[in-house]
Amino acid sequence: AFPRDSPLADDFSTAILTLAESGELQRIHDKWLTNTGCSSQSTDISSNQLDLNSFWGLFLICAIASVLALSVYFLRILRTFSQQNHQPDVSAYAEGNSRSGSMQRFLSFLDQKDESKPGEKPTQVSSGNSTV
């Protein structure tokens, strides 16, 4: 515990040797370091140890926060999609199945890579006029 040739090392070693010779070191070892059973043999005493059930409230809070964040994110995506696709697509009606056409447009919208720089608003293109 001490550097080589430290004057404290000799004093410390002498103190440990004195405790060992008097039996005090063994008494300290038996008191603090041996694993003995509980003095009370009663089994109805509740333990104050933490286990998995102790944290159910934190798990519930995390689950609620995660579901809420996912819902907000999904609603923002839907709002952005509806703002960018507010005009009906003629090709979807020509196919005869507007639901599958809407679903294809939504999936292609999700697949698009956002090429705007961080901090900038994404550009919106509408009927010939480009706004930033």
Structural account:
- The chain has 132 residues and is mostly helical.
- Helices cover 56% and strands 5% of the residues.
- A hairpin with a 2-residue loop joins strand 1 and strand 2.
- The longest helix is centred in the middle third of the chain and has 29 residues, at 56-84.
- It starts with 6 loop residues before the first helix and ends with a strand.
- The mean pLDDT is 77.
- Residues 113-132 are annotated as: Disordered.
Q: Which stretches are low in confidence, meaning pLDDT under 50 for 5 or more residues running?
A: none
Quote the beta fraction.
under 5%
Question: Total number of β-strand segments?
Answer: 2
Strand order of the largest sheet: 1-2
Transmembrane segments: 55-75
Biased composition (Polar residues): 123-132
Region (Disordered): 113-132
Keywords: Membrane, Transmembrane, Transmembrane helix
Describe what is shown at a glance:
56% of the residues lie in helices and 5% in strands.
SSE inventory with pairings:
Blueprint (H helix, E strand, L loop, with lengths): L6 H16 L1 H9 L23 H29 L5 H6 L2 H14 L12 E3 L2 E3 L1
Antiparallel strand pairs: 1-2
